[in-house]
Structure prediction request, 305 residues.
Amino acid sequence: MRPRLRAHLPQHEQSQRHTGSQPPVTDRRMVPVLPHKSRTGPSRLLAVGLLGIVSVLGLTTACLPPPTPVTKPFPTDAYLRSYFVSRPGVEAVAAFDANSGVTYAYGPATRFHTASTIKVAILGTLLVRAQDAKRPLTTGERNLAARMIEFSDNAATDVLWSAIGRGSGLAQFMTRIGMRHTVPGPGPYWILTETTTVDLTMLMRAVAYPNFVLTNDSRAYILQLMSNVTPSQRWGVSAAVRPGQRVALKNGWMVVQNIWGINSMGRIWGSDRDFVIAVLTNGSPTKNVGIATVEGATRIAMRGL
Prediction:
């Protein structure tokens, strides 16, 4: 039985609403590059043939969603497994290494409610709609976006959720960036969107690295807001940041019948390293226990990369 929806509205996030406006690489493209060994070899001919088919159909490579990544276990998989056994609830973690192009995952198929991590996708949807209309965001939209990302303001999110067409609008954006295993929340309940850690790394890849969906200006804007979250919300994947590195992140939390779901995702880059990472959990008895689980998992996962 699904819990009463009102229980999904996290009191801690609501209490941190902000009513004023705030001011607001190794890169790999998400769209796959067709392999070639020589100018005349079979792979080259295959690439030309596929591009010819695309041309005949009146499509461009920009129309092709990126493939679901094949994941590998983390080098520290055994330590992650042991750690999660010692923690309450259910957990999953995934990371994409931009230098190697490898996606690592623990529990890649496990789905969780996104809580406020989905706010990044809501902003991405808003920006793509503005791009398609060949217009910038309005002052009002930018103010709402800053409140939604930097302060996790749920009221601002409600307005933008309606502006993008709720779940149907979000689904169009997610299809374009390859989030194949995410289901938008019903009606007004964006917080009940269900996803996997691997899908959240696809979202962060669209934000972090050049692609055919978000322009460089749009990506830079999202990263700017994620780099400027209010200090009380800078926990989570930031636990793995080393000297000389930067982090852009978005966290989410929700409580249902005294059971907490604590999530964190972001990009960590600098000092010749560049990753996007997502950690999803459910079943912690308190918010602080959940945060500790997320940060512990982040440190272990990143230790071997």
About this structure: The chain has two domains: 5-28+67-303, 32-65. The beta strands are 71-72, 90-97, 102-106, 112-113, 194-195, 246-256, 259-270, 273-282. Residues 1-62 have pLDDT under 50 and may be disordered.
